Protein 1
Amino acid sequence: MFEIGKVYYMTDWFTGGVKRLTCVKRTESHAWFRVTSTELDGAYITNEDFEIKRTDGGREYVLIYEYHGKENRLYGSEEWV
């Protein structure tokens, strides 16, 4: 489950930079994140929202991007609902 205030980390598939996603708001269907990207040329802060999806087992995730049919997902927790 995505929790407000919790920080999630991932690596950018293209640049290799680290993204820090802080959950700032959520509803049953959407999660809003403050995204801080650290790249070679500096740090960037954006705000992004994603639709919350669930696996067949009920585990929450957001789809960060899809490339050639391969999904890059961010899971809300390691716990199964």
Protein 2
Amino acid sequence: MLPEKEGCYGQWPDMDYEHVTESRVLAAEYTKWITALSADVPGPEGQAAMLVEGRFYPGDQLEVTVEQGEYYHLQIRTLEGFYDQPVSVRLQRDLLPEHYEIRLQREGESAVAETRTMGRYVVFDLECPGDFRVVKASPGIPAGYFVMGGGIILLVLLFVVCRLIKCGKSRRMAGTAGQQATEEAQASASEGEMAEESQTPASEGEMAEEAQTLSASQALENPRKSDTSREAE
């Protein structure tokens, strides 16, 4: 097992290992990976119309088939068969429509690829070499605007919900305060009625005492009148 070396692949020297008759020290040979293969498709200004990036051996070959100007089939032929590792595909931007989508075709299903721009190339990723399609798309609002609009709507909804919650709390607090004020007013009225009731018997008692005093004074005046009348006789 050869130790790994970044950006390289290792190989033991090419020799007949079945007829080794003496001990030998072998030095592994490291070679840099080939990181890009170009397609045999003409591009503007002498640049490759398509590049496929990955880690390839010297004998690997990229084969591209284009049908109707929009259906692409990629495969990378190796010494052992076909390459089945993830790759990145670069397409010349000048060869694409003004508005486009790149749809990946895999196992009968289609999915829109996420693309990025690097210089004059549009780049997207494939799980392994396969089929994709370049489709003309109608100009429209970028997806980012929809995301921003959705975020703004969500913020507005959150603001409205918070305001409703605050209003509900304020109303509940106001109702509680009003109920407390009503209860206090009722308690004060009850205390006033009790005070009046306690004062009423005292007033009647005072009236009774005044009546007794008046009767006593009249009783004192009547004997004097009777004595005077007797003297007059």
Protein 3
Amino acid sequence: MTTIQALERELHRLWASDDDDDLPFSAYVDEGSVCDRLENACAEARCALAPRVRQWMLFNRWVNEWEERTNSEYSLWVSNVYTRISGMLDEAERDRPTGE
């Protein structure tokens, strides 16, 4: 299982924006790679990074809005990936220990 720090490094590397310095994330991220990294991470890491992952999903959806409108196959694939990612994050947050 991937730890919080390791997952953070992996996601940062995927999201790094070499060409788009003024953007918070790269516009060319493979959504499937992000999903794979999250699947291999522990629930604690998913929970800790959930806000940042959700922020990336909003950004990425905005960046790819035109392509999603013109390519229904891509749109369906991305929608399925986002559903899987959201489910993993929701589950990790729901099962987070409360500290009691």
Protein 4
Amino acid sequence: MDDETEKKIRQTEAEFEKLIAEAKAAGEPTDMMEELLEGYAPMARHLAGDESADVRVTHHPGGVDVRALRKSLDLTQAAFASRFGLSVHAVRKWEMGVRSPEAGTLRWLKLIEMDVDFADRVEASLHRAAG
């Protein structure tokens, strides 16, 4: 993995930590945010080709009704995918029941379902860190 990728991962971790601190200061629950942060760096390193990254696949019971969530936000599939960093193709497959979200994506969808405003802030931070 190159230095630039490692730098971006660390910047994103710092953004997550900042959001968690802001949420704590506002009295908001942070358990799910802390879980996302804990899994972010190993996942990002693994996706960047670091085979030594400590990553394991887990399966979580239950799911998110993606269609109901998207409709509750009054968004098209394309707008939902764009807003939350997902592929339109995946959203369609989930809604048709052809595929299910993987564990990391399921956590992201649960976060969106629980607190869409916080999810928007996380997505904005990720864009800033990647930019």
